[in-house]
Amino acid sequence: MPQSEDQRLVDLEARLERDDPRFTRAMRTGRPARPREYRRTGAWWALALGVAVLGSGIALAQGLLIAAGLVLVGMAAQLVDPDPSRLGRQRQRRW
Questions:
Q1: Contact at 8 Å (CB) between 69 and 53?
Q2: Are 73 and 50 in contact (CB under 8 A)?
Q3: Torsion-angle region of residue 61: left (phi > 0), alpha (psi -120 to 50) or beta?
Q4: Model confidence pLDDT, tens digit, residues 44-92
Q5: Which listed site, 3, 41, 65, 90, has its alpha carbon 20 to 30 Å from 20?
Q6: Distance CA 39, CA 37 (A)
């Protein structure tokens, strides 16, 4: 028996509320916020921290700081610019 369109919309709304409550509240008030997938503030801070650690490691000639900085920059760069096709597959599996 096929679901009605209203039931599908209610299910979609409940799933969105569970996944990203901040986005849902913002839409209700009429002041939209970015969805969670597009919020990357923490990733940018991690990238800045990684560059700072890498720069200080180079300036102090400390191999451990250089290595830590490279690892942080690599991790943060992956978070800042993820592969959109990979995000789509994860989203489909989870729903």
A1: yes
A2: yes
A3: left
A4: 899 999 999 999 999 999 999 999 999 999 999 888 876 666 555 555 5
A5: 3
A6: 6
Question: What string of H, E and C letters represents the secondary structure of 1-67?
Answer: CCCCHHHHHHHHHHHHHHHCHHHHHHHHHCCCCCCHHHCCHHHHHHHHHHHHHHHHHHHHCCHHHHH
Q: Distance (Å, rounded) from C-alpha 59 to C-alpha 32?
A: 44
**For the purposes of burial, counting CB atoms within 10 Å of the CB of 69, is it exposed (0-12), middle (13-18) or buried (19 or more)?**
buried
- 3-class DSSP assignment, residue 83: coil
Residues 48 and 64: their CA atoms lie apart, in Å, by: 18
Distances in whole angstroms, Cα of residue 60 to Cα of each of 47, 55, 65, 74, 89:
20, 9, 9, 21, 43
How many CB atoms are closer than 10 A to CB 40? 16
